[in-house]
Amino acid sequence: MAHPLQLGFQDAMSPIMEELLHFHDHTLMIVFMISAMVLYIIMLMMTTKLTYTNTMNAQEVEMIWTILPAIVLITIALPSLRVLYLMDEINNPHLTIKAIGHQWYWTYEYTDYDNLEFDSYMIPTQDLPNGYFRLLEVDHRMMMPMESPIRMLISAEDVLHSWAVPSLGVKTDAVPGRLNQTTFIVTRPGVFYGQCSEICGANHSFMPIVVESLPLQHFENWSTMSS
To answer: Could you tell me the pLDDT band of residue 163, with boundaries at 50, 70 and 90?
Structure first.
C-alpha cells in the first residue's frame, strides 16, 4: 500500500509491475540526460561571447537535432511496446474472477466455482478493528491463489468505474454493458490495496479494493468453505 511522503511506485508484487518499474527507471534516466543537456546548452548560450548570428545554413546541426530525438524516441518506444504486449497477453488462466462495479461497492464472482459470489463494502471508520487501514479495508476481500495466472473480467452495473491495484500493475476500466479483461500473477502471499480510479459519484472515495493472495492449499480451503 502507499505510505506518507511516498515519491515512487509501490513495491512490485507481480511480474507486470516489475516490468513497469524497470520501464519507468529507464525512461526517467533518459529524461534526466535530456534535461542536463538542455540546461548545459542554455548556460552555454548565456555565457558565450560569440556575436556572429547571421548564419543561415547549418546542415550538421539540423541533422543532429533531427536524428538525436528520433533515437531517443526509439529507445523509449521499443521497451514501451514490449510491456504493452506483455500486459495484453493471456495464456491459460488458472482462475477467472469477475468484478462488477456498483455505486459504491464491488461484487466478485468466481466463475469457476458454483455459488461463490459476494459483495465487498468498505468497513466504516467506527467499525474498523485495531490495526486496519481507514478507507481501505473491506468486509470481504477478494481472495486468490499466489503464483497462478488470474484473469479478471471487469464490468459495471451503473456508471463508469475503474478496478485498480497499483502494486499489481492493474488498472482496468469498468464500463456498463462492456466486459474488459486483464491478467496478472501475484508472486508472493500478502494483502494488496487499491481503489476505484474513475470518478463515479458522491461516494467514489469509499469503494476500496482489497486483494489477498494465499498459497494454493489455503485458497482451496477458503473456496470450499465459501461455496
So the answer is: very high
Residues 145, 219 share a domain: yes
Whether residue 53 has pLDDT greater than 60: no
Residue 65 burial class via C-beta count within 10 angstroms: exposed 0-12, middle 13-18, buried 19 and up = exposed
Residue 98: strand, helix, or coil: strand
Last residue of a domain, one of 88, 106, 131: 88
CA distance 149 to 162: 21
Q: What is the residue range of 61's domain?
A: 15-88
Domain identity same for 64 and 134: no
Task: Give the model's pLDDT for residue 159.
Answer: 93
* Predicted local distance difference test score (pLDDT) of residue 54: 60
Burial code of 70-94, b = ≥16 C-beta within 10 A, e = fewer?
Answer: eeeeeeeeeeeeeeeeebeeeeebe
